[in-house]
Design a protein that fits this description.
Number of helices: 15
Helix content: 25-40%
Strand order of the largest sheet: 16-14-1-2-19-20-21
Distance between the termini: 65 Å
Number of strands: 21
Strand content: 15-25%
Oligomer: single chain
Largest sheet: 7 strands, antiparallel
Shape: globular
């Protein structure tokens, strides 16, 4: 998320086009809802034109009168300039040096509320980046964001933000005011013992507007809705989500379903809201729930890999999964048959993810050590989440090389795509081999945090920040190289093992079997599942019958 390096140019131009396609997902867990007491949020930046590189903005001290350029994240268009504060903070991806992390999902909302003045210069992507550069806490980030749009105008559509620090996590819904300057918004603090999610749908409905500690909103939030004819009831009945957005079956199924699938894993009572997801009920699911068990970092990683497994929407089991139970569907997401509209499922894990993260903010550690940005590129299902401390100042080469039109063997994004795109065709056969490598690396990175922090803590406590930063940068470079190299080897292995629809036989040590003369043994022929053969007969009758 830098506005300075080459990585920034790519990021600014295309990074959050994901949200324009209603394609991002955020999960969050308060500090009392996690096994280690950290505040955790996740974000998948999904787009068919998004490259998976890592951004970085270094901390800086600015001279009086210094200005900051603002460019639109979706297009790279120059929007204007705003004054720089005296100091800005180090930002790694979507996390800054004070362990503040921000994610987003776009929901569009009422079209007439998109800025029509032509003077707004703060888009939602810049809003995130600038807030990270200027905030030491989540409440401060909310102040920065809402003050920016009030002063300079809001140049984007309806947006939900996840804003976390080492003590708390908030959800904020925001939308513009059309011909009027600024935006209307509401922010709710998620209880420390709760989990929450949003996925391209605003989810803040009736809340206690008198609870100033946990609920904040623009002064004209309800008044503006009344003036525009979006709401006419009592203030206590006001629902931001319903006033400023229309929720149809399409958006529930493709958007709210992801939030539902996450929360129901930890609160089975949410199964009753399946009828909301499918458009059979108008009773929406709650904004947050208290989980039946505490969530670990590994839980959050696994939830980012969800394809609705264990629900009626399980993508590995419907007819679209084919004989290899592939939980992916190519776009477009809807189609018509006999005049009726149907959908493809849209899960959290999807092929067009550029990059994603899981942030850990830990209050009991110095900021330089407490904030970990677990970064992954490409599909969340097959990526490796790599730990980067928020004190990082040098982006590993594997997160900067290549672009969407330039295949690069040293690019983490391209190596992950090479692995994933092979699996999209023969999923059930390849995913076990992918999981071995992926799980091995992630387990290693999780377990090694203790040893790394035993090295980093004394440096932080002694104020030896130069040595701490050197360690952080060197470790990140080593991890990025290892993960990328391992996936390059994995991609080559998958190509060899599954060549031409066969499956080569292996020895116990993983090597491929040869006969007594040193030549390859005859491979296995996995064929297809029985359901596939039965469908052929149903479709073609006796066309293939051996008479």
């Amino acid at each position: 998320m830098t506005m300075i390096t080459r990585t920034t140019a790519t990021f600014s131009a295309i990074a959050i086009s994901a949200a324009s396609a209603l394609a991002c997902t955020n999960f969050m867990a308060g500090k009392d809802a996690t096994t280690d007491g950290s505040v955790m949020i996740t974000y998948a930046a999904d787009s068919h034109t998004l490259y998976g590189d890592l951004s970085h903005t270094p901390a800086a001290v600015h001279k009086d009168g210094a200005m900051r350029k603002v460019t639109e994240w979706d297009s790279g268009k120059y929007l204007g300039e705003i004054p720089q504060p005296k100091e800005t903070y180090n930002v790694v991806g979507n996390m800054n040096q004070y362990q503040v992390a921000i994610g987003e999902t776009t929901w569009g909302g009422r079209e007439e509320l998109i800025d029509t003045t032509g003077n707004a210069i703060i888009d939602y992507g810049s809003l995130i980046q600038i807030a990270l550069e200027r905030s030491k806490s989540a409440p401060e980030a909310i102040d920065v964001m809402t003050n920016l749009v009030a002063q300079y105008g809001y140049a984007s559509e309806g947006e939900s933000f996840t804003i976390a620090d080492k003590n708390e996590v908030w959800v904020m819904d925001m939308i513009g005011k059309g011909a009027e300057k600024g935006a209307v918004w509401i922010a709710v603090r998620i209880p420390d013992n709760a989990i929450c999610a949003h996925a391209n749908e605003p989810r803040i409905r009736q809340v206690d507007l008198k609870d100033k500690k946990n609920v904040r909103y623009s002064k004209d939030m309800i008044e503006f809705a009344r003036k525009r004819g979006y709401f006419s009831g009592k203030d206590s009945d006001f629902s931001f989500a319903d006033a400023y957005c229309v929720h149809d079956t399409d958006t529930r199924r493709s958007c709210d379903a992801r939030a539902w699938a996450f929360m129901r894993k930890f609160d089975p009572s949410l199964d009753k809201y399946y009828s909301w997801i499918c458009g059979e009920s108008d009773v929406p699911m709650p904004l947050y729930v208290v989980p039946d068990r505490k969530l670990s970092l590994q839980d959050m990683q696994e939830c980012m890999r969800d394809h609705f497994e264990g629900t009626p929407l399980d993508m590995t089991k419907d007819v679209g999964a084919g004989p290899n139970h592939v939980p992916y569907r190519w776009r477009p997401m809807s189609y018509e048959v006999d005049g009726k509209k149907y959908c493809m499922e849209r899960a959290t894990a999807t092929q067009q993810t550029g990059w994603s993260f899981i942030s850990q903010s830990r209050s009991w550690l110095p900021d330089a050590v407490g904030g970990i940005f677990w970064f992954g590129t490409d599909d969340t299902n097959t990526c490796v989440y790599m730990p980067l401390y928020c004190s990082l100042t040098e982006v590993p080469m594997q997160f900067t090389v290549g672009d969407l039109y330039e295949f690069n063997m040293n690019s983490n994004f391209w190596m992950n795509n090479w692995v994933a795109n092979q699996a999209y065709n023969r999923y059930d056969l390849m995913i076990p081999d992918i999981r071995k490598v992926q799980n091995g690396l992630e387990e290693k990175y999780r377990d090694s945090r203790k040893a790394s922090e035993e090295q980093l803590l004394p440096l932080a406590e002694a104020g030896m920040m130069g040595q701490l930063t050197t360690y952080v940068n060197m470790e990140a470079a080593s991890i990025a190289k290892e993960a990328t190299d391992c996936y390059r080897n994995l991609a080559e292995f998958l190509m060899v093992k599954f060549l031409d629809g066969n499956v080569k036989k292996q020895n116990e040590d993983g090597s491929f079997k040869r006969n007594e003369y040193g030549l390859p043994e005859s491979p296995s022929w996995p064929g297809y599942d029985q359901k596939y053969y039965e469908n052929i007969v149903k479709e073609t009758g006796d066309h293939f019958l051996l008479k």
